[in-house]
Structures are given as structure tokens and as C-alpha cells.
């Protein structure tokens, strides 16, 4: 599915604008809130496949004191069982092990082959980072995930 998101707060005039509602813009919410809404209704895996610039609500044409930047987010929400430690949310992070061994096994189901990126969900990225190793690189979220993940 694809929906508009906006990290900036929208005033009530924008939220209640019939034209913006018809364009599906008045309901834009921050990505974190969007993901939470999906996981709150039981989606156990969320994959963000894309995040793109979409619209600008400017001060000349809309009742706002600042430019409002709206993005379009492309998401695949999978209604699989919710893991005990929370949903697997893939935002495009990757882990790369670059140590001396052929691979690294974290003993929790994640095997990183030396110098081969592995797509990881956000909670796995946190778990790998918490190992305190200096031979694992965790990328920032790219918001472009296309499968092959850890979970």
C-alpha cells in the first residue's frame, strides 16, 4: 500500500480541509505513528519499500505559516504472528560483518557472512549494535527494503 506521511504537525485548518481530504493529504501522519497504527492492529511484519517526496503545502496556497513537506511511503504490512518482542519493521537497514572469521553467528538466528550485507529489521539492528563489537557495521535506514531480511 502507499500512503502520504508528514513529519511536521498540521494545523486544524489543514486537517479539516475538504480538498486536502479528497487528495488523502489531510490525514498525513509521521512514519513512526503510521507504523505503530499498523502494528497495533496486529501486523507482525512491516516492510518499507519506498519513501518519496510527494507534495508541498505552501504558505501562499494553504492556511499554513510554514512549508509542509509530505512524502509518499510504500509499505507491505504482513499479518503474521506478532513476535513476543514486537513487530519486525524493515526500514532498509543492513548489517555487514567485517571481522576475521568467515561468518558471525549471534546465536539468535542471524548469521552474517563476512563482508556480505544482510537486510535486518530495526530491532535486530539494535540487538547487533548492542553486542558492542567493532566489526559490525549497521547502516542507517534507507527506507528502501526489497526482501531478503533477517526475520
Q: Could you characterize what this model shows?
A:
β6 (about 105) and β7 (about 110-115) form a beta hairpin. By secondary structure, the chain is of the alpha+beta class. The chain has a 4-stranded mixed sheet with strand order 1-3-2-4, covered by helices on one side. The protein has helices spanning about 10-15, 20, 30-40, 120-130, and strands spanning about 1-5, 45-55, 70-80, 90, 95, 105, 110-115, 120, 135-140. It has 2 domains: about 1-80, no CATH class; about 90-140. It contains 4 helices and 9 strands; from the N terminus they run βαααβββββββαβ.
Task: List the defining traits of the structure above.
151 residues, alpha+beta, 2 domains, 4-stranded mixed sheet, 3-stranded antiparallel sheet, 9 strands, 32% strand
Q: Mean pLDDT, as a whole number?
A: 94
Intertermini distance = 21 Å
* General shape: elongated
User: Could you tell me the number of beta strands?
Assistant: 9
Contiguous helical run count: 4
Q: Gyration radius, to the nearest Å?
A: 19 Å
Unreliable spans are: none
Order of adjacent strands in the largest pleated sheet: 1-3-2-4
| Succession of helices and strands | EHHHEEEEEEEHE
What percent strand?
A: 25-35%
* SS-derived structural category: alpha+beta
**Number of domains in the coordinates?**
2
Q: Share of helix among residues? A: 10-25%
User: Mind summarizing the main beta sheet?
Assistant: 4 strands, mixed
Amino acid at each position: 500500500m502507499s500512503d502520504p506521511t508528514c513529519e511536521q504537525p498540521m494545523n486544524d485548518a489543514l486537517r479539516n480541509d475538504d480538498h486536502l481530504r479528497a487528495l488523502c493529504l489531510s490525514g498525513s501522519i509521521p512514519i513512526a505513528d503510521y507504523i505503530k497504527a499498523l502494528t497495533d492492529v496486529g501486523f507482525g511484519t512491516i516492510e518499507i519499500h519506498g519513501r518519496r517526496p510527494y507534495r508541498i503545502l505552501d504558505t501562499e496556497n494553504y492556511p499554513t505559516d510554514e512549508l509542509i513537506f509530505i512524502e509518499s511511503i510504500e509499505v507491505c504490512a504482513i499479518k503474521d504472528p506478532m513476535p513476543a518482542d514486537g513487530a519486525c519493521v524493515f526500514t532498509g537497514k543492513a548489517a555487514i560483518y567485517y571481522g576475521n572469521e568467515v561468518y558471525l553467528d549471534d546465536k539468535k538466528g542471524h548469521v552474517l557472512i563476512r563482508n556480505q550485507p544482510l537486510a535486518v529489521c530495526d530491532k535486530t539492528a539494535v540487538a547487533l549494535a548492542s553486542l558492542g563489537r567493532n566489526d559490525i557495521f549497521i547502516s542507517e535506514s534507507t527506507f528502501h527494503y526489497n526482501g531478503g531480511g533477517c526475520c
